[in-house]
Amino acid sequence: LGLVHSHRGRVGSSGMRYKLLHEGDIQVCVVKHPRTFLSKILTSKFLRRWEPHHLTLTDSSLTSATPTGYMETPLSYSAIEDLQLLSWDNAPKYCVQLSFPGGTVLLQAANSYLRDQWFHSLQWKKKIYKYRKVLNNPSRWDVVLKEIRALVDMALTSPLQDESIHQAPLHIISTLLAENSNLSTQDHENIIVAIAPLLENNHPPPDLCEFFCKHCRERPRSMVVIEVFTPVVQRILKHNMDFGKCPRLRLFTQEYILALNELNAGMEVVKKFVHSMHGPTGQCPHPRVLPNLVAVCLAAIYSCYEEFINSRDNSPSLKEIRNGCQQQNDRKPPMPLRLLRPEPPTPPPATLLPLSVLRHLSSAHVAAAPHLLFSPRPDSPRLRPLLFVLTMTLSFFLSFSPSPVRSDYDDWRPALASLLQPIPFPKEALAHAKFTKELKYVIQRFAEDPRQEVHSCLLSVRSGKDGWFQLYSPGGVACDDDGELFASMVHILMGSCYKTKKFLLSLAENKLGPCMLLALRGNQTMVEILCLMLEYNIIDNKDTQLQIISTLESTQVGLRMYEQLCDRQRELKELQRKGGPTRLTLPSKSTDADLARLLSSGSFGNLENLSLAFTNVTSACAEQLIKLPSLKQLNLWSTQFGDAGLRLLSEHLACLQVLNLCETPVTDAGLLALSSMKSLCSLNMNSTKLTADTYEDLKVTDRKHYFNSIHV
């Protein structure tokens, strides 16, 4: 492994750097004389004529766009015996000399930089051509290994700067490996170590990725996996990566993670790898690491279930359908994903074989017995490292027990919640008890996170589509408890900004039974939900209302909260009784408590204009404002009133006509809720966080609702 580090000091050698030339304009002169007379010709005053040509440096020869004169036939790289710069006195300026049997070709550039660029490009093309021919017909592998090291050394020391300088050797070596699959394990490791310096700043090509995958499967405990593959995988995860265009890179990353899990320390090694990708600080400096890690894990899990599905009916996979591979005879055996643990005993004919046996089956075996492709056990422990990596990004380490260990990855949790919000898993996985049980710990962490951007992802992406909230609620396909996780999700959502009629109406329509059952068992969150349903008149059916009241009265906590509800209802009737002022202005620096105390002091059924400008009220005061039935004008200038309060106002203050939100912390999320307020005709949003897109949406609402003015 010492060879991995022997080249690194040479990569950063100083000197001029040039871009690899593929074509260009240059002057050409051919001198067909023996080399012994070359010096006489070059110093002669009768200089040979020069022809302008547009030359192209192909993979095998130097050709001209106008094949006439000196360049009537291409000049093969194999025919070039020597290549050098002309720099002595009386020689033509800025010339490159190409010696071939029977003569010399002189290429004259416009300046010394272009001359050197042509020289190094020709030299590179000539050497790559030689190595390609040598390595295409290997005889002795000790000689081949020596040539590979020389090729890598040439690429590392070349003054040319181009992506192909490192990619061309990798493609040559990957072709060599693809055509010679019977190499020994030691040859495998020697080649991997030899090309390791090229992989420090370059992604491996597809064929090379397949070779690396094979090594990870066959020798997961090899030190090459740790020493050589680790920086390669780290580079893949840290950069923008389209795994749809580069599926082999994703598969290689997946096989690397599985190989780490095969080491003695197992999960501890995987844990350290994820920690190294995140970094020691609280914020990961590489924004692409998390999406790439999640993409690798999700694709592996999806492939596991997709292969299982295809094995049952032998139907074409989605990928094969996209590629037009509809015919049974055209189908190839799926790529082994090593997600299932091999079992020592041979299964009976009615049982499907594990993937470890599949690796030794030929295409003929697979075609003859397609039902033997996959074992219908996607719950195998081979899925564990993939789920482990997925859940490690949630700030705890999964050991098949719901016990958090540390919180080093809090910065990843919002992004991960957003990535998982659309539920990117096949329906077979969601109906699989083992899978949903392990994923349940992920959802619990989302439900325990106080950040709105995290726990809001429990809800569905759009209406009509189930979210994690629906899947893990009683009656959902993933629910395996009596509603404890459901109560936890409702608690965090209600405590945030979802104490709205819409959310309560959804619960009343779909989950009223589980809510009443949990309330009957004394769950305080569900007791609060039932009280809010009564308070906001969510339930229209009288029998259902009486049943809810009976449920509340059956427990001490329910009885206490129901009595408090009745007291609030009596106070509300007194508050909304006709009478009191029509205009009211709170003194500056007033708080939510001051407003609540004032409104509880008498009747405010006639209050139409309320000014809370320059006070210290927050969104919490919305609980008091929605009790004012006649309120038409509300001034919240320079307060701390936010999005949660706006959502509540939009559902309860149907008569509100004028709203001043100048210099408040409201955002697009809260302002969009105002589009449902049909009576609102004047809205002031000066000095808010309103964006241009939301402003355009509100302008459309303006035309629909006939707002008199929108101020921004």
Automatic annotation (TrEMBL):
Domain PH per the UniProt entry, residue ranges: 20-129
Any Gene Ontology CC annotation: nucleoplasm
Gene3D superfamilies: Ribonuclease Inhibitor
Xref: Pfam families: PH_21
InterPro entries according to UniProt: CMIP, LRR_dom_sf, PH_CMIP, PH_domain
SUPFAM superfamilies membership: PH domain-like (SSF50729), RNI-like (SSF52047)
Domain of life per record: Eukaryota
Protein name: PH domain-containing protein
Origin species: Scophthalmus maximus
Primary gene name: LOC118315332
